[in-house]
Amino acid sequence: MNKGNWGHDQWGKGCGHHGQHGHHGQHGHHGHHGHHPQQLPTQVSPTQYDPPIVSPTRQFVQTNVSNTVVPHIHPSHTTIVNRHNINNQHFFPHTQSVVNECHVTNTKCGMPYNPCKCHPRKHGF
Fold first, then answer.
1. Contact (CB, 8 A) for 55 and 8
2. What is the DSSP string of 57-71?
């Protein structure tokens, strides 16, 4: 609301103290010197403008949110070791054998008896 416009339009010459007396005077019961003032047309002055009245600035906060996805990569690795164990077992088998030998000795002790005095035959000896 403009203070200046309110003051001039509502409380100016047409609506002030003198206007109230004029209103009472129309009815003839005012009691001022026994005469009735004549109602004249209302005079409207040009609108006056006072300097603006500025209220303190109201403070507002508007929050704007921006979402950002940041991937964090944490790699890992597993090495699978397939270990094949070989157990070399060394055996040392040992065999033995027995050889039975027989050595035959033939000893000729003299001449065999030959009663017939024949010529001796060969019998392998």
1. no
2. PPP------------
Q: Are 5 and 47 in contact (CB under 8 A)?
A: yes
Contact yes or no for 28/36 (Cβ under 8 A): yes
Q: Which residues contact 67 (CB under 8 A, 6 or more apart)?
A: none
CA distances from 121 to 106, 112, 116, 117, 118 (A): 18, 12, 12, 11, 9
Reported as type and span, the H/E element at residue 3 is: helix 3-11
The pTM score is 0.27
3-state secondary structure of 8: helix
Q: What is the pLDDT of residues 51-101, one digit of tens each?
A: 999 999 999 999 999 999 999 999 999 999 999 999 999 999 999 999 999
- The full DSSP string for 9-44 is HHHSTTTSHHHHHHHHHHHT---STT--PPPPPPP-
